[in-house]
Amino acid sequence: MRARGAAALAALLALAGCDSGQLKEPSLPPPHLISGPIDLPAACSTRPQAPDHPGEPSLAVDPGDPRELVAAWQENRSPDDVGIVVAVSHDGGTSWTRAALPSVLACTGGLYVHAGDPWVSIGRDGVVYVSALVVRPRTAAGTTRDIVVSISRDHGATWERPAVVESATMPPSFPDKETILADPRRPGYGYVVWAEYGATASSVSPVDQVVFARTTDAGRTWSKPAPIYSGQDEAQQNQLLMTAGGVLLDVFVEGSSLPSTPHPPPLPVKIRVLRSTDQGQSWSAPVDAANFTYTNAVDPGSGAQLRFFGQDIVATAAGNAVYVAWFENHADFSTILVARSEDAGRHWRPAQVVVRQKPEAFLPTLAVAGDATVGMLWFDVRHFVSGSSRLDTDVWFSTSRDRGAHWVHRHAAGPFDLRTAPRGNLGPFIGDYMGVVGLPDGFGAVFVQARPQSRNGPTDVFFSRITGSS
């Protein structure tokens, strides 16, 4: 009886594993803290300082030297006198130096009162690009938002004054969620893409267009912004990728007025891809990569909004393979899925399940290592206890060595109490994205945790160096 019972149990476990291609492995080594106090100009110290509130980190690696890493995140404390923080490592993530990105906010010599949506990329020539969405002081004409790019030509030691790529005033325009890509094949080439909405003085249209600009002289000048896609719906979370064959891709999610409230009705959306074979001078019609149901994450204890939406897709490329990932949170299960193209985004295979479980899972972030292993960072609330005052949230890292068919999950960090993160009008905020890069022998990841893991305030940024043997 015991032998038959053990065999039956083994069969059940094997069947459960086959259901989503999942295996279990031990935890990764603990991450280390990379956010914390920074030196600010004297002009920034005239007001009382609130605790640090870092969020929404981006990470880039120098394609010519994997020891050179640059992270950027937005500092959300009030009053906003820091803007964007940049952290630099010259030893593969063992040690870091950090500073406020200069000449952005007023007390650092800039024009702006708020900065967010940081994105960092490094070219093959070592030039570092940091883009951000920044806000000017309000005037009688309205509120002006700029897309700006700061450049470092010495591995982050010094930074040039940010170049304004786009300047738009509400009304009539509202730019949002820019990302940047330094061309990994052509030194001096870089590309920026963002969503731009029509707006009145009090509201923003649910329909937008995708706008693009590029540099061919390493950020000294930028082309006039031009729309590359104008649909009849909302196109968001644009991300730029470059394939080995030199095809430039813009990956985004599109749906009808993407909602930002708890428990939205079932909303079919698409992940779509625009392709350019001439460095962004012309673009294809959109290719459909995946269809899914847009959902929002909610606090499993209170039912309140969590700031994790179906639009939080992610994309990465390696060689001519392209991967996209997204999450769905349903009443009886949560899932994270990955779809793959083998021909630079022309055709797409059916999605593979990475995670399928009862507790909510959200905010995947993808990268590909030098040996073609696919890595994914994500969060879930499996350790939440009903009735608890804490919303225990964990960070996980999953790897696939067979192009996404099967995945190994390892605990990366946590738990932390998501309810202690700074609150916005859409729930606790740690960011709409995290940062993961592929390295020759593994991955680098930056992510946010709240208390009790954070040390300098409600949130902190952490770095993990992940190898195949970690």
Outline:
The protein is mainly β. It has one helix at residues 2-20, and strands spanning 22-24, 32-33, 54-62, 65-75, 83-89, 97-100, 114-122, 128-135, 143-152, 163-170, 173-182, 190-199, 204-215, 226-229, 234-242, 248-255, 267-276, 287-294, 296-298, 305-309, 314-318, 321-329, 334-341, 352-357, 361-368, 374-380, 392-400, 407-417, 423-424, 427-428, 435-439, 442-450, 459-467.
- Strand proportion, as a percent range, falls in over 45%
Shape: globular
Number of domains: 1
Let me know the number of strands.
Answer: 33
SS-derived structural category: mainly beta
Describe this structure in words.
- The protein has 470 residues and is mainly beta.
- It has one domain (21-467): Neuraminidase.
- 4% of the residues lie in helices and 51% in strands.
- The chain is built from one helix and 33 strands.
- The protein has one helix at residues 2-20, and strands at 22-24, 32-33, 54-62, 65-75, 83-89, 97-100, 114-122, 128-135, 143-152, 163-170, 173-182, 190-199, 204-215, 226-229, 234-242, 248-255, 267-276, 287-294, 296-298, 305-309, 314-318, 321-329, 334-341, 352-357, 361-368, 374-380, 392-400, 407-417, 423-424, 427-428, 435-439, 442-450, 459-467.
- The strands form nine sheets. A five-stranded mixed beta sheet has the order 1-28-27-26-25. Strands 2-33-32-31 form a four-stranded antiparallel beta sheet, with no helix packed on it.
- A hairpin with a 4-residue loop joins strand 12 and strand 13.
- The longest helix is centred in the first third of the chain and has 19 residues, at 2-20.
- The radius of gyration is 21 Å and the shape is globular.
- Residues 1-23 have low confidence and may be disordered.
